[in-house]
Design goal:
By secondary structure, the protein is an alpha/beta fold. Helix content is 21%, strand content 32%.
Length: 333
């Protein structure tokens, strides 16, 4: 059954093509449909996670991002649904140098922000925070997929991801059960030098886990039996909705067992997005003292006393954002 949102997406795609062809010939524009199927897949992922697509996009930050946006069709569609949207793409690898997105923006008198960013560089989007990021069909075009997913975990709660995966090599060697990725030759896939990493399903899921995300929903389409990294007739795509994993801070044991000597607990932390965190401790409500620092780790506190209260707090690297906190005390009985 076609949803009303999907029907709106189909109508929007027709309207956008009318605008596009009024300004440039068909060959100028990104040739693949980005709305007809995309919105249906996004709605399916949301429903599988018992969420509503547009509702999860309306969070505290009031903004979403479409990264690798082609001509911006999805961004302009989401704007029509009342969302504030940023388009982020690399003008040097975009199909028409982002000129297409800018033409449509002007024709629509749109407020969509368009930003050119080299996603293969050590870029930073830390000044921005988004309620959701749409990252569709881009991961296998990037040299460093670990870096990009870890970076996105710092700026958004939800991320929609789609990418090509493979169950076997071209000569039939199995990939499915291994957490691996196949590195394409420069023009091996679609004669496109910008294609790099094709993950196995387990490889993709391992990457997602290692970069600080939980998978809320997941499905695949295409050749789901014998897909390969490069054959256009054996193309399989994975779609997933990800939720950023919350920073971790814990103490074990807690409460600390009673005894005559000072007690000991081990404090463990993880920022869950690859960034540096700093753990401070406040004793009896006093000034914070730096206790430990790093992306994650464990450090012992062997000075826990019965008559004192301790609060450990995990902050970001510049001590401007409290990520997590935990109270530690000594058992009295």
């Amino acid at each position: 059954m076609t949803s009303s949102l999907h029907e709106l997406a189909i109508a929007t795609e027709v309207n956008l093509w009318e605008i596009k062809l009024a300004h440039r010939s068909k060959s100028f524009w990104y040739p693949y449909s980005t709305l007809h199927n995309a919105v249906a897949h996004l709605e399916k992922l949301s429903a599988m996670a018992e969420l509503q697509l547009l509702e999860l996009c309306r969070g505290a930050h009031g903004k979403v991002a479409d990264i690798g946006a082609a001509d911006g069709d999805l961004a302009f569609f989401l704007e029509r649904q009342g969302l504030s949207v940023n388009v982020i793409d690399n003008e040097y690898t975009n199909y028409n140098g982002l000129e297409g997105a800018r033409i449509v923006k002007e024709a629509l008198k749109s407020s969509v922000a368009i930003e050119s960013v080299d996603l293969d560089s050590q870029f930073s989007l830390r000044a921005q925070k988004y309620d959701a990021v749409f990252f569709l069909g881009i991961l296998y075009h990037l040299k460093n997929p670990f870096f990009i997913l870890e970076s996105l975990a710092r700026i958004t709660k939800y991320c929609f991801v789609s990418t090509r995966i493979a169950k076997q090599t071209a000569d039939g060697r199995p990939l499915s059960q291994y957490p691996v990725a196949y590195l394409l030759r420069p023009q091996e896939c679609n004669n496109d030098y910008s294609n790099f990493w094709i993950f196995s399903e387990q490889g993709l899921k391992r990457l997602i886990d290692r970069t600080g995300w939980n998978i809320l929903s997941y499905f695949t389409i295409g050749d789901t039996v014998s897909s390969t990294p490069a054959d256009p007739q054996r193309d399989e795509r994975a779609y997933c909705l990800l939720e950023k994993r919350q920073p971790l801070l814990r103490a074990d044991p807690n409460p600390v067992p009673r005894g005559k000597a000072s007690g000991k607990t081990t404090v463990s932390w993880d920022t869950c997005n690859g960034s540096i965190g700093k753990v401070f401790v406040s004793i009896n409500g006093g000034d914070e003292i730096l206790f430990a620092a790093g992306r994650g780790g464990s450090t012992s506190a062997n000075w826990i006393k019965t008559d004192s209260n301790y609060e450990f707090r995990l902050y970001n690297s510049d001590h401007t954002e409290l990520l997590a906190k935990i109270a530690v005390a000594r058992a009295t009985q």
